[in-house]
Design brief:
By secondary structure, this protein is α+β, with helices and mostly antiparallel strands. About 40% of the residues lie in helices and about 15% in strands. It is globular.
Length: about 500
């Protein structure tokens, strides 16, 4: 641990202060760290002169950073450190053409040529726009058959391919292939004007506009030395919690529909709209877009807005309790939710699941408690009691979080009004040769943005991580030994982002 640098969430530091370790020691140290209840937050490559550096941000109860230099290949950390490194290493291979030698299943995460101009690790011909020749793990046996779902789906959702290996109705293995609509977000973020960054961040995942934009703006604030007024921080916190409630309620409604229990599905659908309207009351947009900008918020919360939100929360709290009781007390619902799509604590830990998916399996990690930003250090922590790792637990965690989030908003609204001035989008000089990582508990879990600046203060690297990056593999494991007909229910209980993954 002597070679690790302890950092704080949202703290800008000089890049030269980051310990650069020889790769053999780097490998051993990270493998030992994750083996001792440590988790990866970020692990990515960036150019450093003629060579490439691998930078790792990882956590236990604290945040740490270190890096190493590599050439065109390095021994795979997945072999020694486990599954937590799997997707990160595959992503490094596709983005920079650097091969993790010995990786047990080296295939592309998305579909694009690498940014370094190196020979393609996967030997793809990128003149073919949509690949149809992905390798998939196959289970041999006369009784085994394959079921392919997607990448084009019947609903209005983004593409993703699900390849099931089945014996009868039982799923032996599920492999998920995404990346069909790679947008090049990370490259874009380093090439546009600074005032475009929050706008792009809001569009990374449409249902997480506040979560991703908050990470972006906090990073710019750290690099530019901008202070944010306490009143503005309260508004940001309220907005993030409203986004959480709206999505959790929407998911409970969708889960109700998946088990053909239509009354709560209809009720939850309407209530979700009420919370989106509260965001509209707060900032003029139902998804919270254009509210958060570097330095604060674009619209101050006035007394009348406080009154409207307080009154509506009081009304909706009663309705939410009634509809949740209706859903969770139904024996038919319990029979479908319980023991379906289970992910054990051990597997969740091995994969590094985050958010409600991790907490439903017994992983007690919430960014709001571990690495609080905005006003969360002043607020009570949540506690989850359903930890069996099944659909029921993932639904119950949502119910608990909805009630907790309502309480947080009510606490903030009950505080004396704190004057705060609206801010306008403007350009800020960023600290040169610097590094910052920001984390927030989005409604799906840990969102993280990592920025590195060059000698002139321009963006050298912008790395985004949506919680879905960790959790898609959890969905695959949830289907092990389940009936294939349980897939829609399991899928909705995770409700992961395609676009947040296809950066």
């Amino acid at each position: 641990m002597d070679n690790l640098m302890r950092i704080s969430n949202g703290e800008a530091i000089a890049r030269q202060r980051i310990p650069c370790i020889e790769f053999p020691r780097f490998l051993r140290m990270l493998a030992d760290f994750v083996d001792s209840n440590g988790y990866l937050v970020q692990f990515f490559a960036y150019p450093a002169g003629a060579r490439t550096r691998l930078l790792a941000v990882f956590r236990n109860s604290n945040l740490f950073v270190c890096e190493t230099e590599v050439d065109e290949e390095f021994p795979s950390l997945t072999l020694s450190g486990g599954a937590k490194f799997n997707l990160f290493e595959r992503e490094i291979a596709e983005q920079y053409g650097i091969r993790p030698v010995g990786h047990p299943w080296l295939k592309m995460v998305r579909y694009h040529a690498n940014a370094a101009g190196r020979p393609d690790v996967f030997e793809n011909d990128y003149r073919i726009e949509i690949p149809g020749n992905y390798d998939y793990f196959r289970v041999d046996g006369e009784a085994v058959h394959e079921v392919g779902v997607g990448p084009v789906h019947a609903g209005i959702i983004e593409p993703g391919h699900f390849r099931f290996q089945c014996a009868g109705e039982e799923v032996l293995h599920l492999e998920i292939q995404l990346g069909y609509q790679h947008r090049g977000v990370e490259r874009m973020l380093t090439s546009v004007a600074q005032n475009r960054l929050p706008i792009i961040a809001e569009a990374i995942a449409g249902d997480t506009a506040i979560g991703h934009n908050l990470c972006c703006c906090q990073a710019i604030e750290a690099l530019a030395g901008l202070a944010v007024e306490p009143g503005a921080r309260a508004v940001r916190t309220i907005a993030l919690e409203l986004e959480r409630i709206a999505n959790h309620i929407g998911d409970l409604g969708a889960l109700s529909g998946d088990v053909a229990f239509n009354p709560p599905a209809a009720y939850f659908g309407r209530i979700r709209g009420e919370f989106l309207n509260l965001l509209l009351t707060l900032c003029g947009n139902r998804f919270g877009k254009s509210l958060i900008r570097p330095g604060g918020v674009t619209q101050a919360m006035e007394t009348e807005q406080r009154r409207i939100i307080c009154a509506k929360l009081k009304e909706l709290r009663k309705e939410i309790v009634q509809v949740c009781d209706l859903l969770f007390s139904a024996h038919t619902v319990q029979a479908r939710f319980e023991h379906t799509g289970s992910v054990s604590r051990k597997v969740a830990d091995q994969l590094g699941l985050v958010g409600y998916c991790g907490r439903a399996s017994g992983l007690e990690y919430d960014v709001r408690e571990f690495f609080p930003t905005e006003r969360y250090a002043e607020l009570p922590a949540n506690s989850n009691h359903a930890t069996n790792g099944d659909v029921y637990s993932r639904a119950m965690v949502r119910r608990e979080e909805i009630m907790h989030s309502l309480g947080l908003i009510e606490i903030l609204l009950a505080l004396p009004e704190e004057p705060h001035s609206p801010v306008q989008q403007s350009e800020h000089r960023l600290a040169p040769s610097s590094f910052v990582v920001t984390l927030n508990e989005g409604w799906r879990g840990e969102i993280s943005h990592c920025l590195l600046t060059d000698e002139q203060g321009g963006l050298l690297r912008y790395k985004v991580k949506d919680p879905s990056f960790h959790n898609w593999t959890g969905l695959a494991m949830a289907l092990r030994n389940q009936e294939i007909s349980d897939f829609p229910l399991c899928n909705k209980s995770f409700n992961l982002s395609y676009c947040g993954f296809d950066l």
